[in-house]
């Protein structure tokens, strides 16, 4: 996952084994994703299982309607969904797509590479102040850019995050964004993304949403689970951020 720069941090107990302690605690963002991947006793967010749940199945079904040569999975974590795209999606000539995963955590990237050697992984932080000079060499020219469940961790500078996300794609590229809303009445980022309509509005600044799906899965407490897919908007003839 990608971190939130400039947000107040909360101290994490030394080497907590609960991955939640590294993400949100006491109503504030911690955002220590490197610590989370180093010390969590279980797979964060159960990524291995959730890469095959209903939310993931819907995303794959959306993407199978199209063909992509090169795909970038932003906030890939341990790469389980990245690898699923590699196995199930194909390019225009029927060849397997090239799939690259980006994550802020070097530990996550290292483990993802060991788990899924048929994919490429690199460290990348969309909200780094040094993004123009630190963005990975692989971070450009994609037919499809994907961001699943990441927006809550970049919400304090959402405009920059979305612009840089879109900038990973080639001209004429497409985007898939998936986001689940929390089951609580209040949450971090609610003042920016307080509803599915607000999410749609923010995404529409960088993409023309051709497919919009909102599901309510009992497994996730019946909260809105939003999927958006469509072509990215041109950046007024200038190079993408």
UniProtKB/TrEMBL annotation:
It holds the Pfam family Methyltransf_12. GO terms for molecular function: methyltransferase activity. InterPro entries: Methyltransf_12 (IPR013217), SAM-dependent_MTases_sf (IPR029063). This is Polysaccharide biosynthesis protein/methyltransferase, putative. Residues 73-173 form the Methyltransferase type domain. GO terms for biological process: methylation. Keywords: Methyltransferase, S-adenosyl-L-methionine, Transferase. PANTHER family: METHYLTRANSFERASE (PTHR43464), UBIQUINONE BIOSYNTHESIS O-METHYLTRANSFERASE, MITOCHONDRIAL (PTHR43464:SF19).
């Amino acid at each position: 996952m990608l971190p939130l720069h400039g947000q107040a941090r909360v101290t994490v107990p030394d080497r907590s084994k609960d991955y939640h302690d590294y993400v949100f605690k006491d109503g504030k963002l911690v955002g220590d994703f490197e610590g989370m991947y180093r010390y969590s006793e279980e797979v964060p967010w159960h990524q291995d299982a959730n890469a095959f749940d209903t939310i993931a199945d819907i995303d794959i079904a959306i993407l199978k309607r199209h063909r992509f040569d090169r795909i970038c999975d932003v906030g890939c974590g341990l790469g389980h969904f990245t690898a699923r795209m590699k196995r199930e999606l194909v390019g225009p000539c029927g060849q397997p797509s090239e799939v690259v995963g980006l994550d802020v955590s070097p530990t996550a990237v290292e483990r993802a590479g060991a788990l899924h050697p048929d994919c490429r992984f690199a460290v990348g932080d969309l909200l780094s102040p040094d993004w123009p000079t630190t963005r990975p060499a692989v971070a450009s020219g994609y037919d499809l850019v994907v961001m699943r469940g990441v927006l809550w961790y970049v919400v304090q500078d959402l405009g920059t995050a979305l612009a840089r996300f879109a900038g990973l794609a080639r001209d004429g590229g497409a985007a898939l964004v998936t986001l689940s809303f929390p089951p609580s009445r209040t949450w971090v980022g609610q003042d920016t993304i307080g509803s599915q309509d607000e999410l749609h509005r923010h995404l529409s600044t960088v993409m023309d949403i051709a497919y919009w799906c909102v599901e309510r899965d009992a497994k996730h407490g019946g909260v809105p689970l939003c999927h958006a897919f469509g072509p990215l908007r041109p950046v007024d003839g200038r190079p993408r951020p």
